[in-house]
């Protein structure tokens, strides 16, 4: 299960098995989506599978999660998402009204994100060989001219921005799966981020890196960027927006909010001279109202992420081994 968690074991699986089997220059970028040329156009292309348990959770369900996740992967390349495919794997015996609710959520989320579900597939497996509904979505979108967003472009001096409070999706899933109560209702942050990215690119097309910190949380995404670019990242602990409900849940469970999954947040690396304007544009957008400057890219400790703590110390934020909670998306 750890190999599906988006951390070090997932990277080991990709680097040791899939990259050698499929190896090519496009795949070698290992970004949220591949950017490829088709004639004169640059397309972003992404695919992802969703096996979240439970199927329905506060703030969303597997259907809108599948749409938003793929839309966001495209947006992390700066693309304007256009078309999706969706494949449903259904377990024998799943109630038809459950399938209808999930399909309805897919359609509604696609319309809200401004994309078309253009094609799809359905398979059914025997009872006991699935878990109700699994969904795979693929998407394509157009990358505007002059946009070059990839993890290798992070450079010392970049400001590190996050689009809002972290950890909500992971805590929402934990609360319903484990029957935990944290004194306040916590809803997933699942949402499409393409509109937010468009607002950021209107400030400057020279955004260096975008990443949506899903499995493995902000910590995994920052470690991936640091290693891909050969730079270091320094966060300021008190600047990272952690909702009280997430902080309390993590304290209760012994978790670090930096490792908790998100589904409607992004992290951006932006040249310092553009950071204030980009941050202001983010805060004017509904999906970036809680945006914050949380750190910087540095020459020190290349390939590593560190946090300046509230007590004046420094700690290393390593890549998680697996996922704190399997099947989070």
TrEMBL record:
Residues 155-302 form the PurM-like C-terminal domain. Coiled coil: none annotated. Pfam families: AIRS, AIRS_C. Residues 32-143 form the PurM-like N-terminal domain. CDD domains: HypE. Belongs to the HypE family. This is Hydrogenase expression/formation protein HypE. The gene is hypE.
């Amino acid at each position: 299960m750890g190999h599906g968690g988006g951390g070090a074991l997932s990277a080991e699986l990709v680097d040791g098995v899939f990259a050698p089997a499929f190896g090519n220059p496009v795949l070698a970028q290992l970004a949220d989506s591949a950017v490829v040329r088709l004639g004169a156009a640059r397309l972003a292309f992404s695919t992802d599978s969703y096996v979240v348990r439970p199927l329905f959770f506060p703030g969303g369900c597997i259907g809108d999660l599948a749409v938003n996740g793929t839309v966001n992967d495209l947006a992390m390349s700066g693309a304007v998402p256009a078309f999706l495919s969706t494949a449903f794997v259904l377990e024998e015996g799943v109630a038809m009204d459950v399938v209808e609710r999930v399909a309805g959520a897919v359609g509604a989320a696609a319309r809200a994100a401004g994309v078309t579900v253009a094609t799809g597939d359905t398979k059914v497996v025997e009872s006991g060989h699935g878990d109700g509904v699994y969904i795979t979505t693929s998407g394509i979108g157009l990358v505007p001219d002059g946009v070059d967003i990839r993890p290798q472009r992070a450079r010392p001096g970049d400001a590190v921005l996050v689009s809002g409070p972290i950890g909500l999706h992971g805590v929402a899933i934990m609360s319903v799966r484990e029957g935990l109560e944290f004194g306040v209702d916590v809803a997933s942050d699942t949402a499409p981020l393409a509109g937010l990215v468009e607002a950021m690119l209107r400030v400057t097309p020279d955004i260096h890196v975008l990443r949506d910190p899903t499995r493995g949380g902000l910590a995994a995404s920052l470690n991936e960027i640091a290693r891909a670019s050969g730079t270091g990242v320094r966060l300021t602990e008190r600047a990272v927006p952690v909702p009280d409900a997430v902080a309390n849940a993590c304290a209760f469970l012994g978790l670090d909010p930096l490792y908790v999954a998100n589904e409607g947040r992004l992290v951006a690396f932006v040249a310092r001279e553009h950071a204030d304007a980009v941050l202001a544009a983010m805060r004017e957008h509904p999906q970036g109202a809680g945006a914050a400057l949380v750190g910087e890219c540095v020459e020190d400790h290349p390939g590593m992420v560190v946090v300046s703590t509230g007590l004046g110390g420094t700690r290393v934020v390593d890549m998680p081994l697996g996922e704190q909670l399997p099947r989070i998306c």
